Amino acid sequence: MSVIVFGSINMDLVARTPRIPAPGETLTGHRFETVPGGKGANQAVAVARLGIPTQMVGRIGNDAFGQALLRGLQASSVNCDAILTEATTHSGVAMITVDDASENNIVIIPGANGLIDTTDVERLQPLLAQAKVLLLQLEVPLEAVMAAAKLAKQSGVTVILDPAPARTDLPTALYPLLDIVTPNQVETSQLAGFPITDLETARKAATVLQQRGVGTVITKLGKQGALCMTPTETFEIPAFPVQAVDTVAAGDAFNGGLAAGLAAGMPLREATQQAAAVAALSVTKAGAQPSLPTRTELDAFLTKHGVTNPRADS
């Protein structure tokens, strides 16, 4: 069974500088690079590199960035047949400045991502018959996200929402359409309406989200691991100890690992543990999609940390 990712495809334009420039200031930077990104595309690559059939539904512009983004997805074995090339605007871009202290500021220009609408949901529909999981994020118009979630729910496909970028205005009608929601601490605080500082406040927030209709809440807590609350049980998944180099796309890696595990037939606990391992591996390398591990790398990592290979063959 396959995973479908419905969401954003961006080119990240990354400038490395000594510090973040002040308003009106010009700085000389160290390095510039273009890196394929976008939360949707990152998650699609994360799933596909773990050996799960993956299809991406989204839009790119008819420009050089769009063609490069398409080639990058295809090189990771993502099925791109449902990606529309939009002639009226550019591909989505994120302009990122990263300083020597690893602080950053980011400007996202949606471009083609901002034009995603119900016609993209129509292209999603025939794919759902062979899918087990639909991955969603919030970098494309919310109306399309809701329509995709509703269609997948009606088709019996597991719907996972990564509620990023964080926002406070999710419609109440969206929550019952979500089988799993995977916020980090900031996003959980935004959704629940109070600060998340520890496991106890994370539990309270998960209860709030379940009362709104979400099935399972998996709160990503960084070095504290992840807290998973289902309708019947609550459990913690410890973080894997690693030396972090770059945390970009760690959340996307987690969601990709989770979706891949569920699509392969793993129980939720094992799939969540796999997600934590994929996220841990991703922070040991720089970049978004370049940091996402292969199945071979993940298996070696799990063996190194004494984890029995949780892969299911069903």
Superfamily (CATH H level) name: Ribokinase
CATH T-level topology: UDP-N-acetylmuramoyl-L-alanine:D-glutamate ligase
Write down the secondary-structure element order. Answer: EEEHEHEEEEHEHEEHHEEEHHH
Count of runs of 4 or more consecutive helical residues: 9
Task: State mean pLDDT (0 to 100 scale).
Answer: 93
- CATH class annotation: Alpha Beta
Strand fraction: 15-25%
Question: What shape does the CA trace take?
Answer: globular
Q: Tally the beta strands.
A: 14
Task: Give a quick account of the main beta sheet: strands, pairing sense, barrel closure.
Answer: 10 strands, mixed
CATH architecture: 3-Layer(aba) Sandwich
Q: How many separate structural domains?
A: 1
Q: What distance lies between the first and last C-alpha atoms, to the nearest angstrom?
A: 9 Å
Binding site for substrate: 10-12, 38-42, 139, 252
Main location: cytoplasm
GO cellular component, one term: cytosol
Keywords: ATP-binding, Carbohydrate metabolism, Cytoplasm, Kinase, Magnesium, Metal-binding, Nucleotide-binding, Potassium, Transferase
Description of the structure:
Keywords: ATP-binding, Carbohydrate metabolism, Cytoplasm, Kinase, Magnesium, Metal-binding, Nucleotide-binding, Potassium, Transferase. This is Ribokinase. Belongs to the carbohydrate kinase pfkB family. GO terms for molecular function: ATP binding; metal ion binding; ribokinase activity. Pathway: Carbohydrate metabolism; D-ribose degradation; D-ribose 5-phosphate from beta-D-ribopyranose: step 2/2. Helix 3 packs parallel to helix 4 and helix 7 (250-263) packs antiparallel against helix 8 (268-282). The radius of gyration is 18 Å and the shape is globular. The chain has one domain (2-9, 38-92, 111-304): UDP-N-acetylmuramoyl-L-alanine:D-glutamate ligase, CATH 3.40.1190.20. The model has no long low-confidence stretch (mean pLDDT 93). It starts with a strand and ends in a 10-residue tail after the last helix. The relative contact order is 0.13. It is α/β, with parallel strands linked by helices and 314 residues long. The protein has helices at 39-48, 64-75, 118-124, 142-154, 185-192, 199-211, 250-263, 268-282, 295-304; strands spanning 2-6, 10-16, 31-37, 54-61, 78-79, 83-86, 92-98, 104-109, 131-136, 158-161, 180-181, 216-220, 226-229, 234-237. The chain is built from nine helices and 14 strands. The strands form two sheets. Strands 1, 4, 5, 6, 9, 10, 11, 12, 13 and 14 form a ten-stranded mixed beta sheet that branches. A four-stranded mixed beta sheet has the order 3-2-7-8.
